[in-house]
Queue: 3 jobs
Job 1
Amino acid sequence: MRIDDLAVVIPAQQGGNDLIRNALAKFGSDETPLLTWKIRQLKHVVDSNHIYVSSYSEEVKALALTEGVNVHHRSKDLASESQGPFGDVIVDVIRDIPHKHVAWVSAVCPLMDERDYMLAFQCYFEIFGSGEYDSLMAVNRIYDYLWSDVQPLNYNCDSQQPRRLGLSPTYKVTNGLFMREREAILRERYYVGKKPYKFQVSKLSGLDINAQEDLEAVEALSALHQKQRCERDRVVFLDFDGVIFDSVVEAYAIALLTTQRIKRLDELDLSSEHSRRFMAQRYLIGPAWNYHYLLKSIDDGNDECFTDYLPSEPGASAKDFQAAFFATRQVIRNNFWQEWLALNRMYDGAEKFVEYINNSQNIVIVTTKDKTTVNALLQNHGLARDLEIFDAKTFEEYGGKANFMDDYIKRNHIREALFVDDSEQHLEKCSWVERLKVMQAKWGYVSHETREDNMLEVFNSIEGVLYG
């Protein structure tokens, strides 16, 4: 599935003096029409011949043709979205679009920009066909106390009121973007399915212009938005395990379950001498089959010489162990998801990483962990937006983190980059990557002799890259 299969549809109204969803409203210091602004953003992401402006207005259509994109001639009786059932408007537009997938984009969300669209389109094509999701919509994730006319909707309004981050998240649909397969849209007469993926965007990207005061607010914030855009030639790459989260307890639990040393998670004894010895050697572990030899070295009383037990390639028993290890992990994940997540523990002070992620679009996770787990763990600790996560699939595709980061830096014209990882080996392999500084998280999986808390130093370096 490719972006060539995608059509981007911009339904555009001329509007009136009240500015309600007026695609021709002037925006910015050069008074560019909102529609022109949106078309130019999208042309950075898809070819012009994949962009369709749907309108009854001759002025709107003339502007679209000037920008070199396609025009869809809206029928007069459906000239605005308020005329007739909304499903009729959608079908009238979509049935004439010759692409398998459709992105329905609002012209009146000017601060949702090309980077947002690029990430959303990539995300859509990753999730489509998985069976878990059937569409995508742009949202703001909200931790707020919500009321109907008569009662609270998502919390108990009493002395036991939860902290804001203790609330279950709610989601505000921004109206900036909807994506779905064309045939499904035509069949159900709507661009959101029963299982939409909630693509989280920043609050700025979610701003929607419906009235004059909205336009004034967006224009006032556009300078901040432009500042963030200018900062996007910088990026911070973060490893996950050993930097933000410690997964050694999870690995220990799965290893013991795999070898039937325990039968249930609640039998795990983290105060035992066996646990201490296992965790002391965690920094030497690479692939999961290494745990087979670590357990053997502990059994033989030679774990201080663990490296002597660790061959360069796994034997037959180690291969069998690794297969059983992953199968055991999958069973636990499938049946005890929350308990399994709890085995992965955030390092003390690492909440600051989530704060950076929420406040900057310039942070990327590069990990050998899977994307689903990374997202779930970060969301449990306050992640409030969609995040670029390049996981084990990317690692395999590129043959390592260094190759991926080199490609990312060149492809996105990055001027300054920082990579934070606990593995000295990973950092050394990045020495050839241009414009990339590296920094070791010495609180992670490192030897006892070299371990130290340099988290504040790392935070200062991150801020130096993000904010200059």
Job 2
Amino acid sequence: LGFSAFGSAGMDGSSDWRFKTHLANLPIYYEYQADGIDTTDAIKGTYLDNYRQIWDLYINNATCDPTQLSTKTADDATAEFVTGQCVFYQNGTWEYANVAEVGDENLALVPIYIGVDGEENQGICTGSENYWCVNKNASEEDIQATLDFINWCVTSETGVNAMCGSEGAMPSGKAGMGFVIPFEANLESTNVLNNLADEINADKTPVKWCFSTMPSEEWKNGVGSALTTYAADQSDGTWDGVVTAFVDGWATEAAASKA
């Protein structure tokens, strides 16, 4: 056909977060759902076989040989998608500006399926690692003023335009921040991927980001390194290395964070 199914699953520092964090979130999310928890110091790895299935699918039906992943970058994957070398590219709605040249009519968004029961009702992986915080040690006056300002940002016309708008949306005439905010006043986005995500999640169950429960960056790096090793030599033995990094590494890093 002249193209591959998937873009390169680059495991250099500009790209590996897509797989050691975002893709790894899926087996974590489903384990939490099954066990009725929202965090743990001892991940069991219940869905790591599913993680292996989706990783195998990515790396064995891609634009490059799996042995090349350690040197493949985020820019490589973006270019492969934009130039029609692949059909699927795992990334987020924030990537819209980098892929918009293919045309809105040529863009679609689909959930990441890993073979879990009930995933036909699964929506898009959705969340944030960033939150607004108010310093409890500030004066009561400053705390209230901060809360009032935050409320103004997401309820007033001027504030919402600044938060969600694009060209000329700021009171100064400069471009708005273009954010999608989880409040009723949110504006329809010019980012087609944002709108597609909203459409899908309207009648599906979004997959929660569990990133904040991952024990450390060191844990992520260990998983990423093991995934790269496995990709170059796909055997049960090298996959055991992924399981060890995921499960034992989690327990080790969780304990270290509490030491």
Job 3
Amino acid sequence: MVKRVFITIDNVYPDDSGGKKLSLGRIMHARDNGDSVFVIHYNYSNQNIDSAKAFFHENGISYTCYNPVSDRTNIISRTFYIIRAFFHNEAEPYFFVRKDKAFNNFISEFIKNNAITDVSIESIFLFSVYKILLCDGCKINITFHNVESEFFMQLSNTAQGMLKKLYYKREGKVIRKLEHKILSCKKNSLLKYTFLTPPDSKFYIDKYDLSEGEYSLNINDIYVNSKIERTVNTEKPFFLFPGSLDFPPNNYSLKKLLHSFDQKIFNEMIPIVVTGKCSEKNKKIFSKYNSLKIVGYVNDAELKKLYSTCVACISPITVGGGVKIKNIETIKLGVPLIATKFSCIGINTEGKKVYLSDDSPSSFVSAMKNFLEITI
């Protein structure tokens, strides 16, 4: 039997972010395939793990939370590590893990005591455990959740404010250095890389001359533990955009769409309800668009109701990297999705309720209008 451990740097349940949803989907897929599954969560940011412990126990998955020594996780020590990482020109999470010798020893003991055969490293920031795993003879998979360096460079281009732009640009450079370190490893039959989309894999294949046996494409699935009954609100119909406007690609893409036309075009259609975190600054920026209704962060029950009652979800995204998790979630819930081709890269849309447009604002608006004509 395959005994597979997933090492995460984030608490993947509750799965309230894209990266968490993908990792949880990979974990549940391995369990459903009959693997004996273990999860090790390196809890370097002191996350609450009560829900995760209960969830994994209920699903027959061994869950271990590793807490770094407490004096390294207080504000003063954390600041000290951030400064040290900066001068070492390394990403702070990677530097933090690399310096944690106790964690590296813990991993080695865990592998031996549980006779682990396969290890999935769910973040490039956990790469420092790689050599230890090689010594233990495990098959190793490193998952790239997108082209991280390019993603941060894009965030730098779309972020608002000079400090954010500089921060993202610096992160992009240090992550590029880390990617080079990971992908320039001496060829080893035990090591394999997983990429999310064909464009991601092409980027790395071309840059690092990877052969076919050295990588695989992820099965981009997520775990959905509830279903919805569609009861569309026909009295007050609306489109749903489930994406935080504090996330630069969402902000940029929606703003580009709205800026490209006279607002009369959107006012003549149905409103667009936007969920997700939204700063007061962004609320003010988008307040001039009468066609938008920004509701901010909503809990699972409220989001489920919006999925159930909306006419369709929209995804006008034209920048960013990786896989658009909200699109996968929308499709799995059976909600119609109007989306740019860019936002569906790496997602199986065949036979689904997906209405694709080209990546131009005019094509996307046409898709919205055409959908309304056949549904309302």
